[in-house]
Amino acid sequence: MILDLHTHSIKSDDGRAKVENYCKWIRKKEIPLDGFVLTEHRQYDSESDYRALEDEYNLLILKASEVETDYGHVLVFGVNEDLLHSFDFANIRLPIQTVLNASKENGAFAAPCHPGRKRVGLFSHYARSGPIADVHTVEVFNGGSIPGEDQLSVEQAAIYGYRGFGGSDSHVVSRIGYCATKFERDTITTVEDLVEELQSGSFSPISLKPEPKNTSIET
Amino acid sequence: MKVLSYDDVELGDDLPDESPDVSMSKVTAFCTAAKHVFERFVDHEAARKEGFPAAIVPGIMSQSLLLAMIHRWAPGCTVRKIDTVFRGSLLVDSNVTMSGAVTDTDDEARTAEVDLVITAEDGRTGVIGTAVVEFKD
Amino acid sequence: MAESSGSVNIAEVRAEWIGVEFDWAEFIIDKDAMIQWASACGETDERFIDPSHSDFQAHPSFTTHCMSGRLFPKNFPQIGGGFGIDGGKTVTAHLPIRAGSKLTAVTTIADIFDKTGRSGTMVFIVQRMEFKDETGALVSTVDWKMIKKA
């Protein structure tokens, strides 16, 4: 089962993609995704219900969050009411330890994203402040990375023995699925299933970026 | 020139990629037209002193170049809305690539939504955006 | 929304300033300026560069450079340093803008928020300019995201 674990919709301040348009795009372009996870910035979208879209397009659509910590951005899967009351998702200076501890205590799964990125990536903080003991999984393929960032993520993850997953970090429709995660299990249907699989470590990151076109017109 | 009609447009269509001219002379001409002549746009050395790798293309120029690309793709269309996020610097005198793709269509309004991206020479995404394009009847 | 960004409490700034109108300006839309703008944008559509075209009008992005010079409301708190950089623009073209039109623009603080990115901690200040013509019809809306380092 292949899921894009990192996407943004118009619910995020810089997201420009409608969720239904993601679904249409995946089907039209025959992108081999079985679903995607909406990881809106600094919030958890408790309101939106995408079950009708899931049925219409035969895709799994889950909700999570991307929060901002003193060690960079972190994806939190399996957000629930208890976790929402554990820390302020909108705070851009969350201590990473708070996020990791609260997620673990409340049955969620927290993992730093784009760890090779300057300032908002985990490893840029490791160089200055040392490693965090409770990190075990990071996003090693990120569709929004600039050249060199994913390479750094992969290298550093190997050094620290972290498992790696992938996500497109798409903010516009046409970038969904640039990176994704292949799970060994075929039947992830709920966010609880997803958390279980992330905890099991039975997954690998994949890149589905299209080849660049070489047909641009000079104007 | 064949005028693209709404009926020719399908979700998933790509707009032809373009490599706009962002040379110093073109950017300076834009800044003059915009009455927006700041050193970071028209002087490489001054831009470096501000911490940029070189002079940068103004955001509103990037957006305007994308609009011109849409007008070439669908002559006679009306761009009802364009929304661009300037995510990273595009450097003056570099090679940048503009691309677009149709991500939705509305038969009733005869509009198409398009994704827009400008990619810098080193592969970074400089600008992302969307536009709503209305076609003539 | 985070409680503070540097020495400025963003939640308080939001509560006080969102929705505040702070600038009113008039612009006469000059034919030559319209052509100069469209040409500098690499525009090739004759509607925007040929004044003899039956549908000659301003390029949709023309209003993005119509500024009066006032960046913030009087007494707006100092957030970060420097002029700030342009984080993005949204233009909604409601009606064509014709040569010779006199437009009136009202500027409002539309949103304020902070976030972290490759460049560090930043505060986004969104300003909305609404342009109306002589008849009072809304012709263009421009949302400008100004980024300031926190």
Structure at a glance:
In chain B, 26% of the residues lie in helices and 32% in strands. Chain B has helices at residues 24-34, 39-42, 44-49, 59-73, and strands spanning 14-19, 78-86, 97-106, 111-119, 125-134. In chain C, a hairpin with a 2-residue loop joins β3 (102-117) and β4.
Tell me the layout of helices and strands.
The complex is a heterotrimer of chains A (219), B (137) and C (150).
Chain A: E1 2-7, H1 19-28, E2 35-41, H2 51-57, E3 60-69, E4 72-77, H3 81-84, H4 96-105, E5 109-112, H5 122-129, E6 137-142, H6 149-160, E7 163-167, E8 179-183, H7 191-200, E9 203-207, E10 217-218
Parallel strand pairs in A: 1-2, 2-3, 6-7
Antiparallel strand pairs in A: 1-8, 3-4, 4-5, 8-9
Chain B: E1 14-19, H1 24-34, H2 39-42, H3 44-49, H4 59-73, E2 78-86, E3 97-106, E4 111-119, E5 125-134
Antiparallel strand pairs in B: 1-3, 2-5, 3-4, 4-5
Chain C: H1 10-17, E1 21-28, H2 31-40, H3 46-49, E2 85-93, E3 102-117, E4 120-132, E5 138-149
Antiparallel strand pairs in C: 1-3, 2-5, 3-4, 4-5
**Major sheet of chain B:** 5 strands, antiparallel
Question: For the terminal residues of chain C, how far apart are their CA atoms?
Answer: 14 Å
Unreliable segments of chain C (pLDDT under 50, ≥5 consecutive)?
none
The outline of chain C comes out as elongated
Taken in chain order, the helices and strands of chain B follow as: EHHHHEEEE
What does this structure look like?
The complex is a heterotrimer of chains A (219), B (137) and C (150). Chain A has helices spanning 19-28, 51-57, 81-84, 96-105, 122-129, 149-160, 191-200, and strands spanning 2-7, 35-41, 60-69, 72-77, 109-112, 137-142, 163-167, 179-183, 203-207, 217-218. By secondary structure, chain A is an alpha/beta fold. Chain A is globular, with a radius of gyration of 17 Å. The model of chain A has no long low-confidence stretch (mean pLDDT 95). Chain B contains 4 helices and 5 strands; from the N terminus they run E-H-H-H-H-E-E-E-E. The model of chain B has no long low-confidence stretch (mean pLDDT 94). Chain B has a 5-stranded antiparallel beta sheet with strand order 1-3-4-5-2, with helices on one face. In chain B, a hairpin with a 4-residue loop joins strand 3 and strand 4. Chain B has a domain at 12-21 and 59-134: Thiol Ester Dehydrase, Chain A (Roll), CATH 3.10.129. With 150 residues, chain C is mainly beta. Chain C is 15% helix and 39% strand. Chain C has 3 helices and 5 strands, in the order αβααββββ. Chain C starts with 9 loop residues before the first helix and ends with a strand. Chains in contact: A-B, A-C, B-C. At the B-C interface, helix 1, helix 4 and strand 2 of B face helix 2 and strand 2 of C.
